[in-house]
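Protocol step 4 of 6: record predicted structures for both targets in the notebook before any analysis. Target 1:
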Amino acid sequence: MIQESRTLNDIIHLSSELNTVQDMDILLDRILTEARRILNADAASIQIKEGDELVFSHVQTESLQKKLPPGQKLIYTTFRTKISPSSISGYAAMTGEIINIPDAYAISSEAPYRFDPTSDRRSGYRTRSILTIPLKNNRDEILGVMQILNSLNPAASNACSDADGCFLGAFSEDDEMIALHFAAITSMILQRAQMTRALILRMISMAELRDPKETGAHVNRVASYAVELYEVWARRHGLPADEIDRKKDALRMAAMLHDVGKVAISDLILKKPSRFTPEEYEIMKTHTYQGARLFKSRQSEFDEMAATVALTHHENWDGTGYPGRVDIETGKPVESDPQGRPIPLKGEEIPIFGRIVALADVYDALSSRRVYKEAWDEASVLREIRSCSGTKFDPELVEIFFDSMDIIRSITARYPDEG
């Protein structure tokens, strides 16, 4: 009874904490971590329903993670599968039923679904117990599926031993009840997070109508790169874990809106396929403070960060960027040089979030095809990034960028351009 009460309190506390998180990706990672902790499981995934497919967007495996050096992350390939009653996840998504399998390799022949061992063979992992929980909204529609793998609780039998390289535990009926309660809370929070993401993407769609470069894939990549760079930088600088999580949440959304000020720029400039004239370039540069102006009624940390990122993501480490020290309301210099031009920010005068998004944005722009250019090959992009260390970019962030290339590449694959 004491343990059940403690578990319920954990779930209630988790629900309260998750209500403070806005970004969907960060939310889902946190949910998986807490689900594994509460159910004492080694691995878990969340699969989001998109049309007639399930997208495996978030995966965690503690036993494999522990084999890596501190701070290094497992790289998972995002993939999608057709929803089918022959797969375990597909059956749960189609029927809305919870499925509790003690041994994935000993499923009854009478069951309509089968376990696919392909992933186990590729990774060397051994899946045994699987708890699959459908995620539903308040209209009983399926949002996705959560799978919890390999219970670490003691088994009731000796059917499997440590020597077999598998997990002894199975999920109990109590685990099922906890998982259902947990899934209900998760689904409500997931709906809210999807609504927040949808609102941001609508703002980006407005910018995309004006500027074809501002695609959903581009801003998702830039935001994801930015979060990864910030997390490593923040750990290096000894920031508390709760602050890192909070800042990551705001940064992802702010980074997605880094160029939202382009809605104020004329189509004649935005959609021009050739090089800007000096006059056009000066107008184009105003998108920085035009974007910051959208967040002038700052009521949250997100508003503050979005304004900062919009305003400073074109400042350069060596002090040659723009817009410099300007009043965002008027665009007039707050501090000017002898020619009356705003004095740019330099080095650590540039907020860390602006420095991070600057690097993430340029990397993605060089790597992507545009109406006026082809995508650069990776070697050329990386040479350019390295050559700009200490001039355009913060040298420490460039170092972190190159140390994080495996994750950077996985993000690129996760958000491909359409067409």
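Target 2:
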Amino acid sequence: MGNSFGDRLRQERLARSLTQSELGGSLYSASYISLLENGRREPTVDVIKQLAKQLQLAPHSIEEWVLPVSIEETQYLLAALYARQSWDTRDYEGATRHAAEAARRAAENRDPVSWWNMAYLQASALLKSGEYDSCIEVLTALMEHPLSTESAGLMVRARQILASALLGLGKLPEAIAEATAAVQQGADTPEEFEAYVTALRTLIGALAESGKLDEAWTHCVTLAAATNDTLPPQLAGEIHWVIGNVAFMRHDVPAGLTHHAMASRLLSPATDLARWAQFNKATAWVRLSAGVVEPATLEAIERSELAHSVVGANIADRLEVSLLRARWLYLTGDLAAALDLLQEISAQQEHLAKHTAGDTALLLGKVLKASEQPQEAMAAFNEARDHFALAGATDRVALALDNILELRASGLSRHAAS
């Protein structure tokens, strides 16, 4: 059976078909129950008594959950502790390793709830590390487990991460399908509000990357409606971040600037430096895409570079930040420096999602064309077209084709391969 307070609490709650809000009643919020279940808070005597009343159990029986009852359970608890400590210190490789060990021991102890929690943590750490294929492999097992198939809340959490992993691989249609399913389930699962919001953000991102900006904006309206004064500032900031991204991509620069300014005020590098780094990367990218070449854009690039260097970003993130710098160099006329940087990124494109590899090739083609190297530019544009086609980014395929046709029409590519 369960071998930690949080794991056992979740197991007993699910067995009674209670939501986290229902279990907390009028005394404890759903978010506090979530913290207890994930081992982020220790219960007091009063909390134990109240939860025992809600679960119709004797208080002493709940108190016993805190204590391991065998060597095997102790080994699980140690592995789970190390996994959570690694996660908290952003050691995602360590979190992956320890969570996998904890999941294995939970399976041996025939403790499905603990196995699910640790497998979920393992998948989350793999996602953070950019190990998308391995993440999907773990998630497949999670989603096939009876706990997931019987609990809409757990399925929302698993689907949300799966959608993010698919987006990371550049598999846009698949990411849209999984994120849509997570959003549909999450809308009816109040206790998983944060997972629902994250799934909605992932769906908006995948739709935007696919060129479906009107559909993405429709979901932005839904996301904005979910924003209220009770949301944690970090979550509210991320909502404004996503809405601003789509506004920029729709060429609504004033709305983009407004939402990103609000995101910048709400997001705190002290709270989550990694997310702060991602925000600055995203805001710099959409600003450059909208042609906003101004000091504030350069500041966002520099903040992203600095923050990513501090948090120890994975190689895909580092390459994407370099791509930002290359785009800035191109737009400010430093073609030689942009070309050198793009060639370095292209040599490592296997670490990039397909649509990002396509963006790299497309920018490389533009730099080569401006540098009067038409044959090389044509090859880069063709490569961009192929990457975008594999990613399912049809609007960007059309953009690559426009550049190919323009180059052919200019007469500069007479000897270039088509």
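Step 5 preliminary note on target 2. The radius of gyration is 24 Å. Residues 413-418 have pLDDT under 50 and may be disordered.
Proceed to step 6 after PI sign-off.
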